[in-house]
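User: Is it possible to get a 3D structure for a protein together with its bound compound? The compound here is L-homoserine. I've pasted both below.
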Amino acid sequence: MKPINVGLLGIGTVGGGTFTVLKRNEEEITRRAGRPIRITAVADKNLELAKSVAGEGVRLTDDAFSIVTDPEIDIVVELIGGYGVAKELVLKAIENGKHVVTANKALLAVHGNEIFAAAQKKGVMVAFEAAVAGGIPIIKALREGLSANRIQWLAGIINGTTNFILSEMRDKGLPFAEVLKEAQALGYAEADPTFDIEGVDAAHKATLMASIAFGVPVQFDKAYVEGISKLDGVDIKYAEQLGYRIKLLGIARRRPQGIELRVHPTLIPEKRLIANVEGAMNAVLVQGDAVGATLYYGKGAGAEPTASAVIADLVDVTRLHTSDPEHRVPHLAFQPDQITELPMLPIDEVETSYYLRLRVDDKPGVLADVTRILADQSISIDAMLQREPEEGESQTDIIILTHLTIEKNMNAAIAKVESLESVTGKVTRLRLENL
Ligand code: HSE
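Assistant: Yes, that's possible. Here is the predicted structure of the complex:
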């Protein structure tokens, strides 16, 4: 059987893992794919590194464009990342009739509509299992396994760096800045960790999942993105006392008015399985109308877990290489002419429950004033906690959990609460999902 020829762009951690796994499981992978999958060319700026990973018999180059235009290459694997040259290379590969396998969530979340349209026109596949939750086959599950369902919502821990930081903050009672340094020393967080800690990486992944779940165009610019850099350890403790854990969740929910797409620190009941996903692990919970809740758990990063997803895509593309493009699984799960323009709801219109922490004077009537303001906005209280003031302390913390309300009502209530004389400083607000 003639092998299918793969050109690899970028030979970092995941590229190395892809070589290792393809070699180790060569026989099984060939039995599944129907023909051997061979990486025959590699482009990387670091040719020495490429040589040490790829070994003999592989064409090495520092000119990635020579691979995407090479007539011998059937599939291009893009592992460069980012929106810059990676976009040019992917579009060039498509223009040259090559299928593309990519782990680049940023590229697809921002430019996916253009890339999928180009691929559709050219009759090639763009596969991206490795772009979301590393080794967890969540794209396959959403796009194929759950295709009988009207998907109602999904919620995922889809950034391992932030989940590691939150786990350490809770376990060791350490502040965010200190744990971030530890995460960097352990190699979890990048030297510039902004995309991870500010929720951008999770929002890229949530954007892709939302499109596949609901059949809407990729719309990263409409996502609400809030990270964990401002999270105070005291809120992790209070949440725990109330029976909740705080996780950075990527949430996509279908509502009659449109779709919610948001990433933010979220309180979730500690008894939920997903609340117990610790360290750098990932998990995605998907609610379908027929199947109910399904949970997918595994490693969201790392050489071999991500290679597992890259190679699964290579096997899929190899199997379907000669098939009629009309009969392949559509890129965004729904047929291209069935992608709908449901509105993405602004954060003001999101419906969720809340955790509020207020610093208040410990004197009669304060609580009555606060609860009156919430009642005036039709916000119902679910639970409350008042810290006992220390000896001689005239102020204390009040924690309030609410039932579901619309964010703009909560904003109005918070503004009024902050204007009370007996309330000091800003109200800390976190969102809460019962899942
Ligand atoms: N930086 C990501 C994370 C891994 O921390 O989960 C790659 O998507």
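The longest helix spans residues 105-122. The longest strand covers residues 244-255.
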